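ASSEMBLY PREDICTION REQUEST
Request ID: AP-0331
Submitted by: J.K., bench scientist
Number of chains: three
Total residues: 1056
Priority: normal
Notes: Please return the full assembly, not individual chains.
Input sequences:
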Amino acid sequence: MNIVVCIKQVPATTEVKINPETNTLVREGVESIINPFDMYAIEEGLRIKEKVGGIVTVLTMGPPQAETALKEAISLGCDEAVLVSDRAFAGSDTLATAYTLARSIKKIDDFDLIICGKQAIDGDTAQVGPGISEELNIPCVTYVKKIEKIEDDKICVERMMEEGYAVIQLPIPCLITVVKEINEPRLPSLRGMMKAKKAQITILNAADIAAENNRIGQVGSPTLVSKIFAPPFKGEGEMILGDVGEQVEKLVNKLKETKVI
Amino acid sequence: MSIRILEDKCTGCSLCVNSCPFGMIKVVSREEAGKYHPKYKKIAVIDAGCNLCGACEEVCPFGAIVIKKETKEQSVDLKEYKNVWVFAEQKKGKVQGVVYELLNEACRLSEQLKEKVAVVLLGEGVEKEAKKLIIHGADIVYLIEHAVLKEFQDDPYTDVLADLIRKEKPQIVLMGATTIGRSFASRIAARIHTGLTADCTGLEIDEQEKILLQTRPAFGGNIMATIKTPYHRPQMATVRHKVFKKRAPEEGKQGEIIRKIYDENLFTCRTKLLDMIEDLTQKVNIADADIIVSGGRGLGDPKNFKLVEELAQVIGGAVGASRAAVDAGWIPYSHQVGQTGRTVCPKIYIACGISGAIQHLVGMQSSDIIVAINRDSNAPIFKVATYGIEGDLFKVVPALTKKFKEISG
Amino acid sequence: MNYFLSEEQQMIKELAKKIAEEKMKPVREKYDENGEFPWEIVEALADADLCGLYIPEEYGGFGGGVLELCLCVEELCKIDGGIALCVAATALATFPLLLFGTEEQKKKFLPDIASGKKIAAFAVTEANAGSDAAGIQTTARKEGDFYILNGTKCFITNGGEAEIYVIIAMTNKGKGARGASAFIVEKDTPGFSFGKKENKMGIRASSTRELVFNECKIPKENLISREGQGFIITMKTFDASRPGVAAQALGIAAGALEDAVKYSRERIQFGRPICSFQAVQHMLADMATKVEAARALIYATARTIDNDPKARATKCSAMSKLFASDVAMEVTTNAVQVYGGYGYMREYPMEKRMRDAKITQIYEGTNQIQRDEIALALIKESARSK
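STATUS: Completed
Returned structure:
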């Protein structure tokens, strides 16, 4: 089975702050990681490969530095790595990204299953996975928490819903996005790390994937970020002092005022 | 659109580096870059991750950064697009709560635009719901009923809605940011080739341009971004449950139900819904609750969750938990609040023994009132708390429960 | 400090750190509490290819040496000094095979150890023979193509959990230490059973158990080297393994130091962090200096051994173990002091380090024995140079 896992390199969010004066991201010393949800996608791809055979290709779109994310994926056991990188992709929104990745997947050639994380922790949009499936005109199921069965021509998955889960069968080729319940990602192995060090990463640019100019980068992006700002500051909270009895008394009165309780 | 550094003007002053919200500008030596200048030793270079936001162009005192906004080929005639649509997500024939919240917002936006509110309802035997949608604000309900559309399935739903959008040309399409809504909206946007903004927390109409300004959190809530879709239609957004208030019904309000019939041969349905399993442990939908009482590592032991549960019960709240408590196996994952759990926005959030890791805070900090009970006065949770109690939760929480019991008799 | 580690050695450190942080840290308290054997961690280490660092590639290992082992053990012990023993004690039992085993023995036993499928244990100590190896009472008598083992070993690390055991037994009691021989015994061999499991002060995640041999019959191919070589094998094994114990001590000390510095910056007393008080600063400075000195000594020793594995390295090996373990005891004691009352509480991982550190001064030769060996080597060297 040919599996393509789409990943994204993101800043480790806990450290991302906005400078309240300049309204820009503070990025000093911010470490780049593979989007945590994509780690589950990689793991699921590897597990499927270990079960039914095949190869796992990991794909990302990003600046040249994103190569480190691909190498990490190789250290975990992925076989091939493709970086789609071109200045022409600058300013891509989710639609342009989905288009670019879909074009790249076509270039990769035969694929049976595409796996994405449910969303990236920097954008939190969850749009690229379904977008890719639409561009490739293949079926897609999001929020998969379990793959029940894999056959040559179809798979059966459990999609997490608000009130439980749906059991859905999809024909192959198809795309799924996965949630953290699906597995526990492995750590790299020493041999994997050695392999990653030597690994050749395929780099594709806009011409390589025969992208239409008006569908990539800023031009191909319907949405525009018009403003970025820090969330409104909540202001100093009030510490309620006194002994336990007094604290409780005061708090209950405050909460009663809200008329919610 | 493109961005360029004018080599003869750039002094390498670095002002632009700090202005870039995405950290995509570097200042390097000119020698290295092969851009010799008699006076300046350094030059700015722009990385591939640039999204042309324009922040650097504004700060550059030398006019050395130029963003060329090519007049974009308008993909559609914007004037043809009218009305604000809401997709009426239904499950088992019942329209979901978030739809009524979106309707309220749609009414507000449509008033500004002087346009109508339309709802799209797909299902089978759901006409009664269509009427209900009208008294909740819809001027038009597009009703498409078919056995294949009984429950949500990606393929036929996408076929039907995309076709309807192409024919009827709405200005704005709103959906709930639910499991279904988020996947469905993404496919529609990709098929129509238009912009979509997920998880909006604020929607406004730009007075001059008459376009939708969509505000949403990014980076786990550390940053807010306002996004617009200037040249494509419809403008699409998903909005989480509880972000907007539900619209009160207006008895006697009139509206039009427009039935659309689709030839089932035109539907594609490559996926097969085999089963729908309700999971009782997932039933606790903390995202819906007005009051949440959450417990964390400070409880020390799974059996102490009883204290949190008792308080929640007395004040009619749901039980939440921090990741630490869930990872320790004290309470199922469905209760987890935070980046990897649920994002909640109740009217009152009471955090008991939760220190407040950033991953937890981003999942609850937009709650109206936050009460923090923790023995460590330095715990980050106090920074977002409306009311803080530094103290022993084993004393404070039972006392609170007792007090509320007395009040409610 | 720059120890000029190779890229591969850096990778080992990085990977071991990752496993320690992500896999060991969440469970260290549990294993310390219940004293169960941390098989899940053995599996994690096996998956990461860290079980065979010091085993040649032809037997499925990574092809590194004592330094690679030490780097790994140090990183693991920064988080937990007990759990990491499953690897370190296996290495102790693997060295006799590596140094003295026949090709057949290596082919048979090393690949499973390298892959982490099996762990191993080395058994010298008995109720009346610890530091004094000549007092061993377990016997092995030859009968045709077999040896028959009788006796009881005690305090054996990895006992009961290991599949492969290297046992020192007397083939000729009359010859004292020169009558000892080394044998490989596999778990589930008839006549081989396990006795009491010890309830220990520290390293509680490690299994320490009695081994009981009652007419236990093993093929003669399981003899390592020749009869009478048991004592030499033991000594050379210790030469190679003591830097591992030293690395364990170093890791425990370095982890304690790291946490103590962090805590001193967070803990506020008299309106300021305690790291601003000179009394605390000087403690931290001494701790850091000793930890770094131990590290330098251990790495240099490991490199000396790896450079020529056949040469005897008793002196520097003993020095590393002696120094690092004493440093570990001192540093963990002071780290508890920096933490104050919290340091004494089980809720914080500091008192555990102090309990774990103690064993490093005792096992694989008490520190008194290490001093004996160092002194003996000094005197011999001096005599030879005359």
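REVIEWER COMMENTS: Chain B has three domains: 2-68, 78-266, 281-408.
SIGN-OFF: pending second reviewer
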